[in-house]
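Sequence design from tokenized structure. All designs in this work follow the same two-part layout: the structure record, then the generated sequence. An example of the structure record is given first.
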């Protein structure tokens, strides 16, 4: 850089900025260059060096350390509460299956089915009978839902073709594809006597036209686990759907139970020794929001100052050296770690606000809150890597990952196209014969597991009893996929990162400066504790460089 023909900013008689050769510069021009070089060097210093240079305390560093502690504690506190909520929901789902599904055993849901008309009626009656006698059966604190003083009924609905005449023996059928729906309501505490349901509730099924039978019921419960942790209990509304699926008309009616949970504030509650603990949690969450908001302001200010310095640097090089600055050099002024912290702070503020709403029972968005807090905590801990980069041995790893990232993205795009091709092929050909290839998302999960060496034998084994041509294709498919991705794609992926690491390591050993920005800054020999950084003045426009 110092061998280039330098030009300076001069003023013409009409007042416009022009460039003048270095020979016409005043004696103060070299001082301007040195001052700006020193300013750039100070910008790229780490917090400890900046403290030695100007005596400014590293507030952002201390704030990030504080944030790591309080955000992690907040996440653990919320995680324990969220775990109790999820456990309560999952255990109630198991309870409802044992209560309402006849002869149910803990097994895979897709294996629970009925095969005769009598079994269908028996299972439906069993569900209704269990619902009516719920208070005498359950060992939990379950109860019927009440709306304006009246119990919510159990609703029994069937969907069927509007008209149909099917004769498989004659290979004939006449079907109206329009679907009709009929529903009846059964209120609690109304005993039924006829197990066929035909007399008491006037309900019958035409199995040749039947598509599905759905039973809807709602139960209430209170999660008392939180009381032991001195937290306010939640009131739950379980909307249960029991589905008899006959859409395939194969003679096998699959039965499935789904549970949609709503969490509401209890109307009238009284738990001793909870208000103080809850107030402490609210105060702590407010402290987290305040810390993150302060960090957000400081990091946004640093990003803004970096962008300003980038414009000054571009104008400076154009004015003094007649050169344009590349985008890669301009991006050196954009601190990605600050952007990561800004995103983390934004997510933490949003998650903490939701958490306060959940604790005060105004909101019930547990899943959204856990995603926000979990992602923000992950980003906070990832941001610690920035401070490890102040040490030389750790910094080389960070530089290697940053250098390899563009090539890794390009390589992943190419490998992803091949991967998608195998996914579609496996789904179409092997899907009807192998449960791991039944849907497209299952195919992607299965192939990714195979790349990592998981379930290799079981995947091969389950294709043994299929048709010979499908069996032969499955062998060619799996062997080619494993050979291509395990032995070639993964090896090339590792080679990209290794090559970037060796390149950075060699550059550091040879002290190679990759850009004119680094070469320009490297000419400043002033140490942080030299005292020269305390008198810097920052120019405000391009003409101030002349």
């Amino acid at each position: 850089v110092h061998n280039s023909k330098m030009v300076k900013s001069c003023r013409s008689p009409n007042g416009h900025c022009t460039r003048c050769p270095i020979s016409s510069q005043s004696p103060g021009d070299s001082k301007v260059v040195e001052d700006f070089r020193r300013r750039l060097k100070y910008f790229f210093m780490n917090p400890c060096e900046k403290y030695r240079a100007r005596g400014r305390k590293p507030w952002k560093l201390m704030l990030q350390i504080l944030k790591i502690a309080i955000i992690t504690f907040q996440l653990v506190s919320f995680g324990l509460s969220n775990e109790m909520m999820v456990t309560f929901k999952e255990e109630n789902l198991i309870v409802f299956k044992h209560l309402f599904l006849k002869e149910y055993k803990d097994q895979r849901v897709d294996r629970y089915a009925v095969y005769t008309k009598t079994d269908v009626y028996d299972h439906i009656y069993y569900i209704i009978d269990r619902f009516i006698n719920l208070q005498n059966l359950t060992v939990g604190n379950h109860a019927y839902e009440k709306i304006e003083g009246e119990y919510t009924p159990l609703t029994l609905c069937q969907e069927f073709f509007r008209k149909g005449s099917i004769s498989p023996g004659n290979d004939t059928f006449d079907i109206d594809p329009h679907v009709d729906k009929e529903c009846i309501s059964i209120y609690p505490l109304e005993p039924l006597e006829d197990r066929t349901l035909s007399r008491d509730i006037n309900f019958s099924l035409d199995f040749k036209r039947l598509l599905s039978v759905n039973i809807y019921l709602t139960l209430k419960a209170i999660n008392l686990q939180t009381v032991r942790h001195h937290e306010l209990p939640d009131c739950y509304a379980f909307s249960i759907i029991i589905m008899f699926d006959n859409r395939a008309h194969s003679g096998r009616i699959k039965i499935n139970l789904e549970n949609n949970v709503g969490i509401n504030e209890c109307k009238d509650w009284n738990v001793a020794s909870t208000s103080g603990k809850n107030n402490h949690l609210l105060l702590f969450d407010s402290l987290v929001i305040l810390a993150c908001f302060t960090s957000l302001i400081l990091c946004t200010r640093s990003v803004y100052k970096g962008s300003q310095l980038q414009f000054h640097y571009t104008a400076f090089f154009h004015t003094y050296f007649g050169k344009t600055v590349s985008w890669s050099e301009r991006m050196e002024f954009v601190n990605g770690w600050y952007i990561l912290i800004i995103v983390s702070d934004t997510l933490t503020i949003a998650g903490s606000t939701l958490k306060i709403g959940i604790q005060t029972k105004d909101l019930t968005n547990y899943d959204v809150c856990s995603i926000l807090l979990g992602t923000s905590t992950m980003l906070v801990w990832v941001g610690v890597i920035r401070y490890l980069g102040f040490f030389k041995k750790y910094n080389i790893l960070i530089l290697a990952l940053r250098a390899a990232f563009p090539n890794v993205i390009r390589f992943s795009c190419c490998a992803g196209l091949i991967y998608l091709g195998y996914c579609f092929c496996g789904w179409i050909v092997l899907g009807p014969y192998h449960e791991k290839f039944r849907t497209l998302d299952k195919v992607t999960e299965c192939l990714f597991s195979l790349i990592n060496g998981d379930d290799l034998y079981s995947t091969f084994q389950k294709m043994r009893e299929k048709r010979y041509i499908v069996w032969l294709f499955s062998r060619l498919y799996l062997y080619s996929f494993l050979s291509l991705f395990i032995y070639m794609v993964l090896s090339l992926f590792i080679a990209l990162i290794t090559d970037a690491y060796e390149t950075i390591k060699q550059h550091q050993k040879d002290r190679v400066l990759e850009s004119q920005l680094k070469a320009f800054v490297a000419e400043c020999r002033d140490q942080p504790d030299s005292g020269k950084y305390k008198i810097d003045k920052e120019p405000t426009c391009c003409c101030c460089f002349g």
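Residues 1-25, 536-546 have pLDDT under 50 and may be disordered. We note this feature because it recurs in several other targets discussed in the main text.
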